[in-house]
């Protein structure tokens, strides 16, 4: 999804909008690659490519086979795949990540081509905790550093660790959740970059330096070098960062942030997104510039990628990489091969309240957008949904020539609108927009309208719902909204799916 270009030629920040948290970026020659967390969704770890740090194209998902990623139905939402680190060393790409589900742990996969295929997992049982990082020192020794912050020597080709993990440096005194460590050799120092304060409003980035990758480390006197805590900045929760050099040799930081909307306390609905911020160096310490909603004019040539089409006709044998499913995607439940030019979903769980429901969607990436799909539910029931987790979702479902809108918020589940429709395929739609004025302290971040499109193209709205109930501040967790298709009973076919930004 390309960034939005402003009238003055600048680009909007985030550079990868929507639920794309915990970015890890590496540069290989003139190319940049970036990986993100994926939690309960399959395939896991979306992977992006760029030539300019601004335009990012998803080229695949690292964990795209059942042999690489097993997420049991018993695993709760916001479990699964946490915080990868992506690096290039000795002619190969290396990615280390934590599978936070039963039977999981830290694993390493490798590839010569980042678009895949990636190897089967190399498990590293001696690596504790989450947020693992990889770095190689001058003699080729690989060090793995994890949240906490502790470090252990690792052979990433076998998963074997040597010695016991030892503590390094854990950020500011009393700061909670020291995590997301990344080690770099820059100039005369090794730098240890971490997140602290938790991934909520208190999030921040701190750094220390030492002469060896094992320390000792001295903290930067200006820590935290980045935080928006206690400010009215439109980008909040800033943290979990990685450093990279731009094409002109300048330094930049890729990090996560959120865009809260509405009144108090502010609700973010797209999840944690990937932003860029400029970095300068003063006395061998990084100084982070503003995480601006618009990027400054950049001094290097820009390299736009292909423009994403609004409509997917499901004409390919495999789904495009932006499509994600819940926990797995067995071919007997999700396929484009059964009816050519259609996506076929065969039900398993009976509703979106259940963890094994058959659901395939894409991340909501714009604050205002419209999604539509043509559904043939002659052999079952299903429809179009806006999902945050099993307890927070809105959907419009068709069954037996009747559509209904269902809202699930916490323990409450209710039908909020219904209408008969003619037999045969029907177009279902959802539109997400800014709430009507006037705005007050209790105004939600957006409104979600669900309805049916008539044959003449007019949209019949069946329900308009407050978007705050599909936000992290209400539901908790680490993900963002995903809009997609599901089957609740029998077999449901989808001819096409549209996703259209409305905010630029």
TrEMBL record:
CDD domains, sorted: GH43_XynB-like
Domain Beta-xylosidase C-terminal Concanavalin A-like, first and last residues per copy: 311-500
SUPFAM superfamilies named in the record: Arabinanase/levansucrase/invertase, Concanavalin A-like lectins/glucanases
InterPro entries noted in UniProt: ConA-like_dom_sf (IPR013320), GH43_C2 (IPR041542), Glyco_hydro_43 (IPR006710), Glyco_hydro_beta-prop_sf (IPR023296), Glycosyl_Hydrlase_43 (IPR051795)
Any GO MF annotation of the entry: hydrolase activity
Keyword annotations: Glycosidase, Hydrolase
UniProt name for this protein: Glycoside hydrolase family 43 protein
Lineage: Bacteria, Bacillati, Actinomycetota, Actinomycetes, Kitasatosporales
């Amino acid at each position: 999804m390309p960034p939005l270009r402003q009238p003055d030629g600048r680009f909007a920040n985030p550079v990868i909008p929507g639920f794309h948290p915990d970015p890890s970026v590496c540069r290989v020659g003139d190319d940049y690659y970036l990986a993100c967390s994926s939690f309960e969704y399959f395939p896991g770890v979306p992977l992006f490519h760029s030539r300019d740090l601004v335009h990012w194209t998803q080229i695949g998902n690292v964990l795209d086979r059942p042999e690489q990623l097993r997420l049991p139905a018993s695993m709760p939402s916001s479990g699964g795949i946490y915080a990868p680190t992506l690096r290039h060393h000795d002619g190969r790409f290396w990615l280390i990540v934590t599978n936070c589900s039963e039977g999981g742990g830290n694993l390493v996969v490798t590839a010569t081509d980042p678009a895949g295929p990636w190897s089967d997992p190399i498990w590293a049982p001696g690596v504790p905790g989450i947020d693992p990082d990889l770095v190689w020192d001058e003699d080729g020794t690989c060090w793995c550093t994890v949240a906490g912050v502790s470090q252990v020597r690792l052979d990433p080709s076998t998963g074997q660790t040597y010695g016991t993990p030892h503590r390094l440096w854990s950020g500011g005194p009393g700061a909670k959740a020291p995590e997301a460590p990344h080690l770099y050799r820059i100039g005369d120092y090794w730098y240890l970059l971490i997140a602290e304060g938790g991934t909520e409003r208190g999030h921040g980035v701190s750094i220390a330096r030492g002469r060896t990758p094992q320390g000792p480390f001295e903290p930067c006197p200006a820590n935290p070098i980045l935080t928006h805590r206690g400010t009215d900045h439109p980008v909040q929760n800033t943290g979990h960062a990685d450093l990279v050099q731009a094409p002109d040799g300048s330094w930049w930081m890729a990090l996560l942030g959120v865009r809260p909307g509405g009144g108090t306390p502010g609700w973010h609905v797209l999840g944690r997104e990937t932003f860029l911020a400029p970095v300068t160096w003063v006395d061998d310490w990084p100084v982070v510039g503003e995480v601006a909603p618009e990027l400054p004019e950049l001094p290097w040539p820009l390299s736009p990628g292909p423009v994403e089409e609004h409509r997917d006709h499901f004409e390919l044998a495999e789904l495009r990489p932006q499509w994600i499913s819940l926990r797995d995607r067995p071919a007997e439940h999700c396929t484009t091969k059964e009816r050519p030019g259609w996506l076929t979903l065969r039900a398993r769980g009976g509703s979106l309240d259940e963890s094994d429901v058959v659901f395939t969607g894409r991340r909501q990436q714009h604050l205002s957008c419209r999604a539509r799909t043509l559904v043939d539910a002659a052999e079952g029931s299903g429809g179009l949904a806006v999902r945050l987790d099993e307890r927070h979702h809105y959907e419009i479902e068709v069954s037996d020539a009747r559509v209904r809108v269902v809202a699930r918020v916490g323990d409450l589940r209710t039908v909020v609108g219904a209408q008969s429709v003619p037999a045969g395929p029907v177009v279902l739609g959802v539109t997400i927009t800014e709430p009507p004025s006037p705005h007050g302290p209790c105004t939600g971040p957006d409104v979600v309208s669900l309805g049916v499109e008539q044959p003449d193209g007019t949209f019949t709205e069946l329900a308009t719902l407050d978007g705050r109930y599909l936000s992290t501040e209400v539901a908790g967790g680490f993900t963002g909204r995903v809009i997609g298709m599901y089957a609740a009973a029998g077999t449901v076919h989808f001819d096409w799916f549209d996703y259209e930004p409305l905010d630029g």
